[in-house]
């Protein structure tokens, strides 16, 4: 059966998940995380992408990436970053083969409805996994940049985040409140299932808007 083509929309954020091969560990040492972040920062600039959120877990990564005008940018970005990490780990471990699952998963996000929610979902991943008791304690995510004011060249600020306040301090305080606010179970479910199925993270209005814009039928039904 042919693989379903990914839906990639220009100037639209996409929730991306890439897992280690057979869900095995990808990041072992601090240098592993740093190497991935360094390459992701370099290649996002090269391909004109923006990264609004990220979280590197031991055996998978979550990203929110906007490809800009070129819909091929996300695929190029992920290919280069994943390839570099594979070669780096293979050299260290004197091994061969793939570090990652064959395909990363991707879901276009409705900026108005779910961009902030997706960022929150991603940055709370270590908390849900029981690794930390607060997202501020986890080093390898965008949370500390957006909620604590820590400098992070990997992170770009989207318009929704910038609208939280008139200055960096205001935005950090209000974003932190947003992340720690009560989250409906339905929000978690929609975000998780959309990226797992490669469908849209958004309402029927978002689907209809894209259907008209792209001239193709889009559905969030299995």
Task: Tell me what you see in this structure.
It is a single chain. The chain is of the alpha+beta class and 222 residues long. The chain has a single domain (14-213), classed as Transposase IS200-like (Alpha-Beta Plaits). The protein is 46% helix and 11% strand. The protein has a four-stranded antiparallel sheet, with helices on both faces. Strand 2 (50-56) and strand 3 (60-66) form a beta hairpin. Helix 1 runs antiparallel to helix 2. The longest helix has 21 residues, at 73-93. The protein is globular, with a radius of gyration of 17 Å.
Question: Top keywords for this entry?
Answer:
222 residues; alpha+beta; Alpha-Beta Plaits; four-stranded antiparallel β-sheet; 9 helices
- Helix-strand makeup class: alpha+beta
The biggest sheet amounts to: 4 strands, antiparallel
In the CATH hierarchy, the architecture is 2-Layer Sandwich
CATH class call: Alpha Beta
Strand order of the largest sheet: 2-3-1-4
In short:
This protein has 222 residues and is of the alpha+beta class. It is built from nine helices and four strands.
SSE arrangement:
Layout: E1 14-19, H1 30-47, E2 50-56, E3 60-66, H2 73-93, E4 105-108, H3 111-123, H4 125-128, H5 143-148, H6 159-162, H7 168-180, H8 185-197, H9 204-214
Helix pairs in contact: 1-2
């Amino acid at each position: 059966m042919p693989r379903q083509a990914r839906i990639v929309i220009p100037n639209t954020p996409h929730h991306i998940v890439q897992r280690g091969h057979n869900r095995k560990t990808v990041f072992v040492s601090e240098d592993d995380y740093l190497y991935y972040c360094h390459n992701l920062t370099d290649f996002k600039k090269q391909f004109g992408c923006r990264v609004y959120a990220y979280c590197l877990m031991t055996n998978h990564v979550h990203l929110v990436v906007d490809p800009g005008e070129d819909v091929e940018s996300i695929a190029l970005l992920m290919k280069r970053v994943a390839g570099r990490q594979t070669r780096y780990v293979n050299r260290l471990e004197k091994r061969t083969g793939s570090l990652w699952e064959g395909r990363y998963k991707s879901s276009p996000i409705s900026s108005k409805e779910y961009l902030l929610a997706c960022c929150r979902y991603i940055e709370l991943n270590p908390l849900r996994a029981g690794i930390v008791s607060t997202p501020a304690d986890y080093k390898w995510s965008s949370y500390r940049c957006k909620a604590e004011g820590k400098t992070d060249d990997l992170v770009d600020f989207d318009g929704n985040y910038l609208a939280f306040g008139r200055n960096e301090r205001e935005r950090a305080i209000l974003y932190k409140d947003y992340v720690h606010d009560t989250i409906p179970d339905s929000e978690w479910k929609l975000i998780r299932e959309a990226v797992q199925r490669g469908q849209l993270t958004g309402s029927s209005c978002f689907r209809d808007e894209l259907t008209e814009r792209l001239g193709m039928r889009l559905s969030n039904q299995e």
